[in-house]
Amino acid sequence: MSSPYHLLWRAAPASAVAAGLIAVVVGITSSAAIVFTAARAAGADQAELASWMLALGVGMGVTCIGLSLRYRAPVVTAWSTPGAALMASGLHGATMAQAVGAFLLSAALITVCGVTGWFERGMDRIPVPLAAGLLAGVLLEFGTRLFSSMHGTGFAVVFPMFAAYLLSRRWMPRYAVIAALLTGLVAAAAQGSLHLGGVRFHVAQPVFTAPDFSWRVLISVGLPLFVVTMASQNLPGVAVLRGDGYDVPVSPLIGWTGGINLLLAPLGCFGLNLAAITAAICTGREAHENPRRRYTAAVWAGIFYLCVAIFGGAVGSLLTALPPALVAGIAGLGLLGTIGGSLSSALSDERWREAAVVTFLTTASGVTLLGVGSAFWGLLAGLCTAFVTHARHRPAPPAPARTGQRQQPDRSRT
Asked: Disordered: where is this region (predicted)?
């Protein structure tokens, strides 16, 4: 019979809890300011802004926990960061009711893509090296930011984190990211850049907004929100799962995120999707040595997202509490293994190598065309390269005759 300590260890291994926490911290701190800007563009007041964070936190928490437990895979969801950036400029002059109408349209289209299987059928035709190149390109910025943040005052925070990570990788590799995070918090506190005193916690309340379907807002915000969420978020999100060996059925994941989004849209949930960058923190070996147990990291991420939902109004003050250098450093360290594995997978097959490199470089460039992010254009560029250069599987040459078998004479010559 298992002891209570053993059961607790299986449900809450320290590395998985830390990975889930880091994923949430990185996800919130890296883009919550964009969400606030989008809400303000729609005229949201403080109560409505807290409702947005409540709805998004509940949506991400429920989908992270439910989907990860259902498929025993680290399925991490997130809000649509490029979608929030798009709304920050597209919702000017629109009302909250019109914004909710756009959220509902986007969520309905995502749900249809999941229920019909259209998105999954498209993903099944993407070669693994191109998907790996796509993932490496998405994560490259976070890897380089680890070192670019060692500039000025950031050096005193990030360099000790990097040193702690390296030493931990030598003697206790499972806890390397945890050690780096704790070191960063201590360094930031010693430097005086950690301002937790200004954080105020209060419970968020839901604010229901009836939708108003304005054709102008639906076309200018609703449809682009759907496109960028699928192309710039769900696409690399699937690449993360498959790149780390999790062959999870895609259609139910897309369908459930779209369906939950539909239910929570009147409360301010503008876009739920599969995470890429934060998911990679939970799918790597730092989350758990056993790949079959890494789903616990995503479950803990969901639990922490539910905490964010409850205290949605405090997220703004938390943003100013952590120095940007600490967030950049812990994100980069948590993704080092995933970046290396993605590059190895992208370049391992010579037939697809050139196309994978084009995918990687285009995605890493951050190019945005027609409001669609570089993940979509990187994949498109890689597929075009593969098509033009005929980088496809060729039939294998005929096997040589077995030893001892009599060779048939070549009668083609006289």
From this structure: 394-414
Look at 326 and 196; give whichever has higher pLDDT. 326
Query: Does some domain include residue 349?
Result: no
Nearest in space to 365 (alpha carbons), one of 30, 136, 146, 79? 136
Task: Tell whether 16 is covered by a domain.
Answer: yes
Cα–Cα dist 183/167, whole Å: 12
* Nearest CA-CA partner of 216 in 368, 71, 359, 102: 102
Confirm whether 361 is domain-assigned: no
Q: Is residue 179 part of a domain?
A: no
Given a contact cutoff of 8 angstroms between Cβ atoms, the answer to whether 113 and 229 are in contact is: no
The pTM score is 0.70
Q: What is the pLDDT of residues 364-402, one digit of tens each?
A: 888 877 766 677 788 889 889 988 886 445 544 555 544
Number of CB atoms found within 10 A of residue 321's CB? 16
What is the residue range of 306's domain? 9-129+142-156+194-329
371: region left, alpha or beta (phi > 0 left; psi from -120 to 50 alpha) = left
Contacts of 134 (CB under 8 A, 6+ apart): 235, 236, 239, 359, 360, 363, 375, 378, 379, 382
- Total number of domains constituting the chain: 1
